Amino acid sequence: MMAASVFRRCIIRNCLVVKSCKHHPCSSKICHKKMSSSQYDTHNTKSLFSILGEFEVNSSSKRSVGSQQPWVSEEQVGNFCQRYQKLGVKEKAEVLLFLSERCGVNHSDAMSAASVLAAAKDDPSIFTYEHRLQESLSPKYSHLFTMISRTPNGVKFLVDMRSNILDLLSTPLSQNEAEPLKHLNISLRGLLAHWFSTGLLNLQRITWQTSCDMLQKVR
Fold first, then answer.
1. Long-range own/partner contacts, residues 158-165 (CB < 8 A, 24 or more apart)
2. What is the pLDDT along the chain (219 residues), one digit of tens a residue?
3. Which of 71, 76, 184, 202 could form a cystine bridge with 58, CB 3.0-4.6 A?
4. What is the arrangement of strands in the sheet containing 30-33, beginning at the earlier edge strand?
5. HEC profile of the chain
6. Beta bridge partners of 9
7. What is the distance of C-alpha 114 from the center of its chain?
8. Residue 161 burial (CB < 10 Å; 0-12/13-18/19+)?
9. Is 81 in contact with 154 (CB distance < 8 Å)?
10. Rounded Cα–Cα distance for residues 27 and 8 (Å)
11. Rounded distance, CA 155 to CA 188, Å?
12. Rounded to whole angstroms, how far apart are CA atoms 180 and 165?
């Protein structure tokens, strides 16, 4: 009874209002609104764009100085995967288009590296110039994919992401959207083909003595 006299709870649609008694020390009003699915997707999308934006900046600066340090932290990679999986189809499409357009090959850097290599001719440093050109032609998102593959269930995440890419490619897109997305698909397909190559697989024969855990994996 005392608790009922102190707090009156009013549920109005998705808003929970807790009103306190004027004689109670905690006399402030607390209003907690549940986030709708569209607001939740928008929040997740903004967080993903923030991670990708930082990845884009770090990739350019660290690549220019030849740094071998990761371009984003493992925590950010895990956060990216968790938030991406919770998005709707439309929001996933926005993230994939951003990833393909902003985190691909820097064409200016590639052309600059190609010009330096072409002018080198018999210069002893030609091998260095070749390496720089090769690096500049590697999409920045390939580094992100490699980091994702090292996380738990990371390869499965990338397989599902490629399925999303193929679905998006089957929809009407402008040429400026379709071309970068095609290259994103080609890069991810190449990485997955490498990871699933026969030499990297651990093959085991299924027998009556095979553990239940193994059978669950191949079910």
1. 158/188, 158/191, 158/192, 159/192, 160/85, 161/84, 161/96, 161/188, 162/188, 162/189, 162/192, 164/92, 164/93, 164/96, 165/96
2. 434 443 333 333 333 333 334 444 444 343 334 445 555 556 667 777 677 777 666 665 555 445 555 567 888 889 899 999 999 999 999 999 999 998 888 888 889 989 998 888 778 888 888 988 888 888 889 989 999 999 989 999 999 999 999 999 999 999 999 999 999 999 999 999 988 876 666 777 788 877 777 666 665
3. 71
4. 7-12, 15-20, 30-33
5. CHHHHHEEEEEECCEEEEEECCCCCCCCCEEEECCCHHHHHHHHHHHHHHHHHHHHHHHHHHHHCCCCCCCCCHHHHHHHHHHHHCCCHHHHHHHHHHHHHHCCCCHHHHHHHHHHHHHHCCCCCHHHHHHHHHHHCCCHHHHHHHHHHCCCCHHHHHHHHHHHHHHHHCCCCCHHHHHHHHHHHHHHHHHHHHHCCHHHCCCCCCCCCCCHHHHHHHC
6. 18
7. 30
8. buried
9. yes
10. 12
11. 11
12. 11
> What is the rounded CA–CA span in Å between residue 170 and residue 14?
37
- The position carrying tokens 């985190």 is 103
Calculate the alpha carbon distances from 181 to 8, 35, 66, 145 in Å.
Answer: 54, 31, 27, 15
Tokens of 218: 């191949």
Evaluate if pTM is beyond 0.70: no
